[in-house]
Amino acid sequence: MRKGMYGRKIEVYTHPKYGGSVPIYLNNIGTFHATFGEDDVTLSAETKSELMKLVDETLKNRTNLEWFPVIEIEFGTNFSFSHRRDEDEKNSKSSEVQLLFERFWIAKKIDKKWIEASWSVTSYHEIHRPKTETGDRLSRSLQFRVSGKYDRNTGREIDLTEFSLPHTIKATDRDEMPKYYVPYTEELWLALNNITNRMEELQKKIIDVLKTPESRANLIANVSKLLPAPKPEPKGKNSGKL
Q1: For 20-65, what is each residue's pLDDT tens digit?
Q2: pTM summary value
């Protein structure tokens, strides 16, 4: 494109959902132009509002997104003080375990930024007969921000441009839990739900488990099978890195 052939560049437009980076021009007779340099496509209109409709439609048609199903998992213990402040740690222990997980979709836009969309949408066309479907993921999408890195000037999380699964965000504070992003499978989703069901069942039965010597002995025997013995601390400065 010859410099100045479309007039004066007045802005570079990016659609909030479709992305893109489209220069907008205004020439000396009041005609607006937009150029898509990759394909040497030019749009023109007498008003800016008409041009922007054309640009939005073009960006939407170019947005052939590949959506990936993802599960976000938070699992860990929150920091908490002993409920008896006068006791030291060997006589009192408190641990609040949390398991949070959510499934959703992610996709990379044409401007290389990632977006996310809820798993499904439920509509109520008929009374008492809800309908759940995938729906238009792009229309309900939001920016996907999981880089774990922040801009020092704005304090906002930096947009992702490179992302692959699995992905981990380490906890940076004792009140935070690490986050894990893994590819979605129906089997994993059901397994996570099964874990929460068992945790809820344990919550209901814990008092009964502690009632008799036999039940307490059973608890002691089974707890030792839940997890392997802790590994010894690695030796060396660089040991234990993931």
Answers
A1: 788 999 998 999 999 886 556 789 999 999 999 999 888 877 777 7
A2: 0.61
